[in-house]
Amino acid sequence: MGRRVVALVVSALFVVGVGGCSGGDGSGGSPGSPTPARSESAPAPRVPAGSAPSATFAVGVRQLKLSRDDRPLPVTIWYPARGTAGKSPQRSAPTATGRFPVVMFSHGMNSRPAEYATLLARWASAGFVVAAPTFPHTSQGSDGTLFDVLNQPADVSYALTRVLTLNAKAGDPLRGRLATDRVAAAGHSAGGVTTIGLFTTGRDERLDAGVVFAGTSLGVGTAFAGAAAPQLFVHGEADEVVDYASGRAAYDKVPWPKAMLSLPKGDHGRALLTDGAALRVVSDTCVEFLRWSLYGDAEARRRLPAEAARGELATLDDRLS
């Protein structure tokens, strides 16, 4: 597509209001050395052999001020912390013991990371460091330049580089706490487009897995490239902004181990923003996927279908192995 056509397509997708989206103590497990995972229908991903933490962690939250050239990219980081699990995230809480994989999360159009705090804090409590940039032209309160979605994969890669440097930064609370060789990308709606772009036109080879919520490949294509990276797609069949068929079409083009969690009554994003039964199914399914793809936890892989089926709120097309 020419740039003008891409811009029109992206505008048509998101002008409706993607961002209408707005709307423990314990030792961490450690990822092991990468070993091949068998798959009959797709290339073998770089899934390590290891186990995820058995503890549920308290959650800390902090801000990282970044800028890529003239593009301000403040990043909110949720991380496993010392303290009592189950409480609200505590600002600048001391980091828990362990080495934790990193998940880069991209928000939707006219949205911001804080709106996904319930979901992302659940991931952090399970043993992941979740870093979410606020994009300069698609976040809530910005100028709403829709075409800028296509610049966001490079923003995420830049932010990832800066987050990973914290692992070696003297005096930083995350020093020695990041599993820098175990990284995933996730995103919702416009952030889902961003995430697909990180595995296609803007392939970041550091990424080992992806999670796409209500995303489409329009603008970034389906030329999935590089080493096999397992993908989990999550989409509501009643999505009023990004048609379910569009998300399914992108999913079908993924050449690697993959799964798609479909919510028959799910809309464009309330299951990600509202703490209820649907969010718990989505969150827990994602956690098991990330435990398997980033920690190499075989038990998590076995639990994943049951989490997806809980409450009969969703169905799972499972092609992970």
Question: Can you tell me about this structure?
Answer:
The chain has 321 residues and is α/β, with parallel strands linked by helices. It has one domain: 3-Layer(aba) Sandwich (Rossmann fold). Helices cover 27% and strands 21% of the residues. The chain contains 8 helices and 12 strands. The strands form 2 sheets. Strands 5-1-4-7-6-8-9-10-11-12 form a 10-stranded mixed beta sheet, sandwiched between helices. The longest helix is centred in the C-terminal third of the chain and has 19 residues, at 277-295. It is globular and about 50 Å long. The two termini are 34 Å apart. The relative contact order is 0.16.
Would you tell me the structural class of the helices and strands? alpha/beta
Order of helices and strands: HEEEEEEHEHEHEEHEHHHE
Query: Into which percentage range does the β-strand content fall?
Result: 15-25%
Structurally, the number of domains stands at 1
For the largest beta-sheet, the strand count, sense and barrel status come to: 10 strands, mixed
- Quick one: overall form? globular
Name of the CATH class: Alpha Beta
* Terminal-residue CA separation: 34 Å
- In CATH terms, the superfamily is Alpha/Beta hydrolase fold, catalytic domain
Residue runs with pLDDT of under 50 for 5 or more positions:
1-28, 30-40
Helix run count: 8
Strand arrangement, major sheet: 5-1-4-7-6-8-9-10-11-12
CATH architecture: 3-Layer(aba) Sandwich
The whole-number mean of residue pLDDT values reads: 88
User: How many strands?
Assistant: 12
